[in-house]
Design goal:
The chain is of the alpha+beta class. It contains four helices and two strands, in the order αααββα. It has a two-stranded antiparallel sheet. The chain is flat, with a radius of gyration of 18 Å.
Length: 72
């Protein structure tokens, strides 16, 4: 037996994100606002070279070049 989310082509993490968004949207106004704030994430990264940290960037704002797109 295969799970419905797997059959739909979703990863488990994506399935959880969709399910949590549906639950948050079904709440009343005040609990919904609190739950939405908890659902926000802020992920940052920095490139290290020669033992020194470079500029810290927000992942959502950074443009990541993949090897496939670099050659085109």
């Amino acid at each position: 037996m295969t799970f419905a989310w797997k059959t739909a082509g979703l990863t488990y993490n994506r399935y959880l994100a969709v399910a949590s968004r549906v639950v948050r949207r079904s709440l009343k106004e005040q609990p919904r606002l609190q739950a939405e704030r908890r659902g926000e994430m802020d992920l940052k990264f920095a490139k290290w070279e020669n033992g020194k940290q470079g500029d810290v960037k927000n992942v959502s704002e950074a443009v990541v070049t993949t090897p496939e797109s670099a050659g085109q």
